[in-house]
Write a structure and sequence with these properties.
The complex is a heterodimer.
Chain A (H helix, E strand, L loop, with lengths): L2 E4 L5 H18 L4 E4 L18 E5 L4 H10 L3 E4 L10 E6 L3 E6 L9 H10 L2 E5 L2 E5 L2 H15 L5 H6 L3 H14 L2 H7 L12 H9 L3 H11 L3 H12 L3 H8 L5 H25 L1
Parallel strand pairs in A: 3-6
Antiparallel strand pairs in A: 2-3, 4-5, 5-6, 7-8
Chain B lengths: L2 E4 L3 E5 L10 E6 L6 E4 L1 H10 L2 E2 H10 L5 H17 L3 E3 L1
Antiparallel strand pairs in B: 1-5, 1-6, 2-3, 3-4
The chains are: A alpha+beta, B alpha+beta.
């Protein structure tokens, strides 16, 4: 009377729910502190019905990262991008598993400028256990979830989550979110997400958030990132990274590790593209 | 009397947790090793009945209550499926 079969073809939404539970079990087994974010980790009322994630997002206590990674790799997750190459903020790396798909492991959240260890402590302070795939998973409390969703929307240049997370919140709840943002050093990113970025025109990160919200050329992005880099050392690191081809992304694009020749060829393309953008800009100025 | 419950190391999600579909469906796995398996139709209904815990008779009555079937019509099939789920470690008996 029943049909049972391998679930490799499980729909993404089901796979993501189960993968959250798997990751939590791996963390529990190694005493690694986690917070589950987005997708099925979002508390009721903060996410539109029928809106699903395509991957698992977790924030790990930075000091526990190696434990979590050991757990992930013990059951077959393979690292595909590193923290230096995963994103502009160098805040996350991701792993792939044939059954469970993508896991994005975050050590910090874009927009939060407080040190990652302290930020985790603040976010974990109000955490609650939320059932995902019928297993208890720690997630940030409601105020922190509102903030995280708005910061994510700002970073993604989208507004999908802002309505439920911010616009529909009572004024008192919005005040709580603003206070939490201040504690986490996330005021500018919050402002970007809720349409108040112009109040922060003098902030070094203003241009970066303006780019995320309104878009622009790659040069605009890099100029914004340079402005936002807090130290001379950070600026040097940024330039170095900018000049280097992202091997991780090239590998994903090609479906195999790139050869040295392919990396060099891509480098030339990048330099030509940058030069072309610069020429256009000079002609336009 | 033997009682059945979902094993402690199992995670599962049903269509009720996602977007309700035409047919009852549950995806079930052992954590952390997997892999996921799919229980469709009547198999899913039995799983949902096991999720509440109970004796084989209670599970049979609960599963029948989710369909138009009489308990005696499905008793043998429910017993077979529950046995299989015990063997693969998804259901715990005590």
């Amino acid at each position: 009377m029943s049909q049972e079969r391998e679930g490799r073809a499980a729909p993404i939404a089901a796979r993501v729910h189960l993968a959250h539970a798997v990751v939590q079990k791996l963390a529990d087994d190694r005493d690694a502190d986690l917070l589950h974010l987005k997708g099925p980790a979002v508390l009721p009322g903060l996410r539109a019905a029928g809106r699903h994630s395509s991957d698992v997002d977790v924030l790990v206590r930075p000091g526990h990262l190696s434990r979590l990674v050991a757990g992930l790799e013990s059951v077959g997750w393979e690292q595909r991008t590193g923290f230096a190459t995963g994103s502009v903020f160098a805040h996350a790396a991701n792993w792939w598993h044939d059954d469970w798909g993508w896991v994005d492991v975050h050590v910090s959240w874009p927009g939060i400028t407080l040190e990652p260890d302290q930020a985790f402590e603040v976010l974990a302070r109000g955490s609650v256990l939320h059932p995902i795939a019928h297993r208890p998973c720690p997630v940030p409390g409601r105020t922190a979830q509102r903030l995280i969703l708005v910061l994510h929307a700002a970073r993604s240049g989208g507004t999908a989550d802002v309505g439920l997370a911010w616009s529909d919140a009572e004024p008192g709840e919005q005040d709580h979110v603003r206070k939490l943002a201040a504690e986490l050093g996330a005021e500018v990113a919050l402002a970007a997400g809720i349409g108040e970025l112009e109040l922060h025109r003098d902030d070094p990160t203003y241009a970066l958030w303006h780019y995320f919200i309104h878009g622009g050329s790659r040069l605009d992005e890099w100029r914004a990132r340079m402005a936002a880099a807090p130290t001379a050392r950070a600026k040097v690191g940024l330039v170095t990274a900018a000049m280097r081809v992202n091997r991780d992304h090239l590998r994903m694009e090609m479906g195999r590790p790139p050869t040295r020749r392919e990396v060099r060829a891509r480098q030339v393309i990048r330099l030509r593209r940058a030069a072309a953008e610069l020429s256009q800009r000079m002609r336009g100025s | 009397m033997t009682r059945y419950t979902i094993a402690d190391d199992v995670a599962w999600v049903s269509e009720q947790d996602l977007d309700p579909g035409d047919e009852p469906t549950a995806y079930v796995t052992k954590v952390p090793g997997g892999p996921p398996i799919l229980l469709e139709g009547s198999g899913c209904l039995v799983w949902l009945a096991v999720a509440d815990g109970g004796t084989l008779e209670e599970i049979t009555v609960a599963a029948a209550g989710m369909t138009d079937a009489e308990p005696e019509e499905i008793r043998d099939d429910v017993a077979t499926l529950v046995d299989q789920l015990v063997i693969i470690g998804f259901v715990h008996e005590e």
